[in-house]
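FW: tagging you since you asked about this chain on Friday. Here's the raw sequence from the shared folder, copied in full. Didn't touch anything.
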Amino acid sequence: MRIGELARATGTTTRALRYYEEQGLLRPERSANGYRSYGNEAVRSVANIRLLLACGLTTDDLRRVDGCLRDELIDAHACADPTAKAELFEQRLSLLQERIDDLVAVRDQLLDRLAGLRRQPAPAGVTGAAADRAGCPEPSYEADGAVRIASTRSTVKRSQPPARSERARSRP
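HL: got it, structure written out here
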């Protein structure tokens, strides 16, 4: 099949297929006129390449398991030597677990902070939505339209200057 047919069969672009070829992940036959010609196994290879790239592996990683890209990744592993594939998957699983652990730690910190903010009593005389925001820094607006949050160093540029009422609110 030609490159356009493979692109349609795999739901990818011809540009991506050419990139996979440049990276040494696909090896089409070339006809006398220079056209790429792919066998039916290329559909599985492209599906595997896309799956592994989406899972965070790199093209360098995929070159390490090149002989296995034509295998069915989910079920049977028919690589002549699956050692490289197993080592790569173990390394990536370890990295993924580290990321998951980091994300869980951040989530837990945010949940603790949110619980603390919700438990914090509102100042005397503050009720309703203002009480919900009690303890949270109020944004101020600078002359150039930038928003500055008290107690942070970051400034966020707005696409439009603040409305007149916002400018009046931020003045001392």
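FW: Confidence is low (pLDDT under 50) at residues 147-172.
HL: agreed, and The beta strands are 29-30, 36-37, 139-141, 147-149, 155-156.
FW: great, closing this out.
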